[in-house]
Specification:
heterodimer; A: mainly beta; four-stranded antiparallel sheet; 0% helix; B: 111 residues; mainly beta; seven-stranded mixed sheet
Chain lengths: 115, 111
């Protein structure tokens, strides 16, 4: 079964608007972590935000927030006030003990910010 | 602070040659990971180390691949002999616990 699912291959957003990138996950482990990474065209992988399964509040880091809905097993990334520099590939990832504490990545969503 | 350092950044080699990729993790991080990224297979974990000890190498594709971590500040990924299908971007990442911080990657092309 797919551990991490990102159903949006590509998204467009107008500069200064907010955008939500979807991520659903599958695990039977009660203890897990969810991550979002950004990969711009230059190729590096940039850590954005982390949410632990026991965290009571949704994680936020600047313009990034993670909409964590545990019952739905979703961990959507919200980018507020989009900037041209946000254009990149975005990966959702999960770590759980069932998979030996490894990070398992989704297939990614390409985001394009329009001016 | 320096991030994860990888070398070389680009490597072009011929089929059959040995390739060695190098990684210096962030100081103080006790876990190190090697990933491979291709268009077809996305990001795949090859192997990871905890406190210099290999914990899981189930992602290593074949015996041609080997990885070492002789100390806390250095790791290598070796491919011998290399094949065209090994062409990919190889990332090293280190972690103090939860988050993993990636290096810039090595783009390997095997002709």
């Amino acid at each position: 079964a797919q551990k991490i699912t990102q159903t949006q291959p590509g998204m467009f957003v107008q500069e200064k608007e907010a955008v939500t990138l979807d991520c659903t996950y599958d695990t039977s482990d009660p203890s897990y972590g969810l991550f979002w990474y950004k990969q711009p065209s230059s190729g590096e992988m940039i850590f954005l935000i982390y949410q632990g399964s026991y965290d009571q509040q949704n994680a936020t880091e600047g313009r990034y927030s993670l909409n964590f809905q545990k019952a739905r097993k979703s961990a959507n990334l919200v980018i507020s006030a989009s900037q041209l520099g946000d254009s990149a590939m975005y990966f959702c990832a999960m770590r759980d003990w069932e998979y030996g504490n490894k990070l398992v990545f989704g297939t990614g969503t390409i985001l394009r910010v329009k001016s | 602070d320096a991030g994860v350092i990888q070398s070389p950044r680009h490597e072009v080699t011929e089929m059959g040659q040995e390739v060695t990729l190098r990684c210096k993790p962030i100081s103080g991080h006790n876990s190190l990971f090697w990933y491979r990224q291709t268009m077809m297979r996305g990001l795949e974990l090859l192997i990871y180390f905890n406190n210099n000890v290999p914990i899981d190498d189930s992602g290593m594709p074949e015996d041609r691949f080997s990885a070492k971590m002789p100390n806390a500040s250095f790791s290598t990924l070796k491919i011998q002999p290399s094949e065209p299908r090994d062409s990919a971007v190889y990332f090293c990442a280190s972690s103090p616990g939860n988050e993993q911080f990636f290096g810039p990657g090595t783009r390997l092309t095997v002709l």
